Amino acid sequence: MGALHQFFTQMILVLFVYFICVLIMELADPVPGTRNIPAGLAAIIALLSVTFGQAAVSRRLVNLGKSRWWMITQLVPILNIYLICLLLFVRGKRRPRGARVE
Question: What residues form the membrane-spanning segments (predicted)?
């Protein structure tokens, strides 16, 4: 499986999990005076899914030969669009089968 295909698959899975968690948080309507456990659990799972998404971005940047410090550009308004285009459209390095990514 190519690095770009793997990146797409992981990001779609992360976005799906995040969407389900946000949906649970929005639909969970607690009874006054009770704790909203489903929404709290969904928030924790959403945070974990964002973490796995960042791991996928990190691996893709390594595949492109870029430093992981490029992940900071996600926070800068115009540079994040450049990063998205870089992640989605630039061909990564070819590695021999079984080679490990640093």
Answer: 6-25, 37-57, 69-90
pLDDT tens digits along 35-93: 667 777 877 888 888 888 888 899 899 989 899 999 999 889 899 899 989 888 888 87
24-55 core/surface letters (b: 16 or more CB in 10 A; e: else): bbeeeeeeeeeeeeebeebeeebeebeeebee
Q: What angle do CA 102, 71, 95 make, to 5 degrees?
A: 30
* pTM as predicted: 0.70
The domain segmentation of the chain, as residue ranges, is 39-93
